[in-house]
Amino acid sequence: MISQATLPQVLIIDDHSAVRAGIAQALLSANMFCCGQAASYSEALAQMARTNPDAIVVDLNLPDGSGLDLIRWIRQRSEDTAIVMLTMSDNDSDLIAAMNSGASGFVRKSSPLPELISVLTRAIDSPKSFTASGVVNALKTLSVKELLTQREVEVLRALSLVGDIATLAKNMNISSSTFKSHTSSIYRKLEAPNRASAIKIARESGII
């Protein structure tokens, strides 16, 4: 029997108690997770301060704030926390917004629970990656410039120049760690495995 102490701690954040209970039951039944619950943005902050969960499952709309804002808040403080957005929304723009905010995955509430478990498992294994059904089609609707922030576009252009990370970062008056953080975000958004692939995508899109 697996000890609960060794299982990933998941915090489920949704203002509907039935939704929270259903998700918690599904995750507990899989014998792969331990679950906590929060009904709002403020309650989630209090829970995270107490329990420091390994993963977050959060709704897009909360009664006292935005799930996207909460994702950004978490990601600014931790690159290792798995974050999955779970929402009723069918809009590709919300999927992209979740990815740009730093989410590790995106699942629609209309999806079967095994999909949530699969995405959550991948997110815990690789919180800096992004997993979502339909993400390829969503990305196709956006240009690379729309997908990246202005700063990421500048970093992507810098990557096309000759030089190591330290030199490129110095030329942009930012630290190497900040440059690397932007680079990781670019690779994730463009689904580029390396610098050469990202540069190729940038050239094909007319950025450089």
Can you describe what's shown?
With 208 residues, the protein is of the alpha/beta class. It has two domains: 4-139, 3-Layer(aba) Sandwich (Rossmann fold), CATH 3.40.50.2300; 143-205, Orthogonal Bundle (Arc Repressor Mutant, subunit A). 53% of the residues lie in helices and 14% in strands. It has eleven helices and eight strands. β6 (82-87), α4 and β7 (105-108) form a beta-alpha-beta unit. It is elongated and about 55 Å long. The relative contact order is 0.10. Keywords: DNA-binding, Phosphoprotein.
What are the key terms here?
8 strands; single chain; alpha/beta; 6-stranded parallel sheet; two-stranded antiparallel sheet; Arc Repressor Mutant, subunit A; 208 residues
Chart the SSEs and their pairings.
Layout: E1 9-13, H1 17-29, E2 34-38, H2 41-51, E3 55-58, E4 61-62, E5 65-66, H3 67-77, E6 82-87, H4 92-101, E7 105-108, H5 113-125, E8 131-132, H6 135-140, H7 144-147, H8 150-159, H9 165-171, H10 176-190, H11 195-205
Parallel strand pairs: 1-2, 1-3, 3-6, 6-7, 7-8
Antiparallel strand pairs: 4-5
Helix pairs in contact: 8-10, 9-10
